[in-house]
Amino acid sequence: MSHATADKWIATTICEKIDAIGATSFRDDRDINGGDSIPQSIRTEIQISRELVVLLTPDSIERPWVLLEVGAAWGRRKDYRIVPVLCHVTFDAIPDIIEGKKAFHINDFDKYLAELKRRVKK
């Protein structure tokens, strides 16, 4: 889960919903222990995961860390899934690197969860 610190409550709620359908989520504030390298932990998680949910909000849209995480995910393999979730931003605010990705508005997040649930069951 890529998000700005200011959006922690929304990110927490999204991760809870992802976990509830049987997928596993990763959130830096919950899953990185004191003394761990934050950049290395995030890099490792992107390498072992199959997809990245990126929460795009007015606070996250230009955050260097969010863009760095999106870039790291984009640089993975062709079948790596990056899912933009928009909250209080429009579709034209999606960073260029992922503008061709199907995005979900936060009000339609249940549609993403349904898709994810089908992938988890496979």
From TrEMBL:
Domain TIR: from-to ranges: 1-122
Annotated Pfam families: TIR_2
InterPro entries: TIR_dom, Toll_tir_struct_dom_sf
Biological process annotations from GO: signal transduction
Name the UniProt record assigns to this protein: TIR domain-containing protein
Organism: Planctopirus hydrillae
